[in-house]
Amino acid sequence: MALSFKLLDSVFLSRRCHRQNALHPLLGPLLTDCISKLYSSYRRPGTSPDNTPPWKMNFSFEKGVDVIKKNFGLLKKELVDHWKGPEGYHFDEYLLQQTRVVWEFRSQKDLDEWVVSSDAEIGGKSETYLKLGKNNQTALLYGTLSTEVPRDGETRYSGYCSMKTKLPKGAFGTKKYYDWSNFNSLYLRIRGDGRPWMINIYTNPYFSHQKDDLYNYFMFTRGGPYWQEIKIPFSKFFLSSRGRIQDEQYPLWLDKISTVGFTLGDKADGPFQLEIDFIGLLKDRAHTEEFAYEKYEKNPQA
Amino acid sequence: MNPYTSVIITLSLIMGPLLTMSSNHWIMAWTGLEISTLAIIPLIAKQHHPRAIEAATKYFLTQATASTLILFSSIMNAWTLGQWDITQMSNNTPCMILTTALAIKLGLAPFHFWLPEVLQGTTTMTALILTTWQKLAPLSLLVMTSQSLNTPLMLTLGLTSTLIGGWYGLNQTQLRKIMASSSIAHLGWMTTILTLSPKLTLLTFYTYIIMTSTTFLMIKTLETNMISVMMTSWTKLPTLNTMMMLTLMSLAGLPPLTGFTPKWLILQELTKQHMFIMAAAMALISLLSLFFYLRISYYTTITLPPNSTNYLQQWRHKTNKKLYLATMTTLSITLLPITPTLLTIP
Fold it and tell me: Transmembrane ranges (chain A) (predicted)?
């Protein structure tokens, strides 16, 4: 089945580049700019749909060879890491870990793992920037939020900024996941400006029906010069799909996590700033809750 | 679940493989396979968790594809030979397609990708049904057509499955995924000896069912799903802990436990057929599986206090000792001395 997806993907190619979770077996490495129309590509509201025919491609042989070399290198690394242990750690070390720092910001390379976006994509007026903080010890996400709605006739709300990790990819563009099943809380050391943020965890499901499923929770920043250490248990995350909180709530399964992101959308115009020292995981033994939300029967019989 | 629904599902689930096993006509065999596939889909997706739905969808797609291929190969066979008898397959393209289809059904490498994901997405009991009962029908078809199947292909599938089953389980911490890799490896052993001695395939299958069911029932009794949780579950039932270690060693195929019987007899048969390299390769590759079984036993049984663990001491609920678990544990550990009797089972 994965092979049929790969073949479909190599057929639907176009100019703009925005790779999703797909694989270009034969032509992929040779193409410079490519789009995957497998998960229907994003069309900015108010623009006409893109109808460039698939045979208009740009070939680049050197880039193709580089990509092939890089992928085989990644494959070799994956095989060696598999021999070493889960997630690259030795098995004993992996099992007994109680804390783990997953993302910290010490260089531009660390910043490159993150993608910053805002409503400028849909024509809004918010601005978001990400840079390294003082002494290259932190990441600073800053900008201006603007709730002015873009005048395209379709959009009704605006005013959001977000930062999320790139989808982890293995060799040949395969999906890679983090296994955080040994931990039960997210640990963040941040310094905000009093604004409420939302943390989104994406599990990158196999089928596209669930591609909008996201697990969210809130992060309330205090503001002020002191660092804030926030522990959010994974049992608190609730399931939403395309921004709508689902009636049927299920706990977040930690064995296949893909990306973590922060979103600001508190309908307050003005500048914002969030400084992140590191993002880590914690096994809080005092936290024994499995899931924070109960399912109540809808339409109960009296 | 609604009692009417559970009755229908249970009856269909029981009837499906029985229909396949007792049929001579390809259409009836295919019907039985479809019934069992459709019956277990609601069981896999019972909880409606996104991962359970994903597991159910993956299971359905792979099994439906395999059923289609089985139907296609049987129709092709009927086209060329003019009859629908399962045991009278001709030795060409239909056999190849049938082998591929049954490999997909069983989860043999290189068609094994669905098995760990599906087992991980469901509950323990459904995983037990998937690895034991659902394998009856395809394996019975393999045994019925074994005289027409291509021996080098079966040997390749078997060796690859054993290798991949061992390799995949090396880094797993989730017990259901480990059992999936154990299933792939055991099916590899069964496939290797299929064309040479179908009786040994069946013997391996019976012992595999007993050992796997025992392991799954132990996992269910201890209510654990990860190795890190197993480290502190000895408090619940200390005797079960010890028996679990022995059952895992039996799964690994260590003498003097039951699991050694099929491996020994298969190696003997391979040697009789002058396939020394194959026998040596199978024996060496099963060391990979032994490694992760040993690892589970170590973390379950040997890491007792004062070793550091990464899970809280668990509450001891009312111990629900089940007689069938004791019986199955005994069977999965002590059957080696009656190997001559086991050889007489058809």
Answer: none
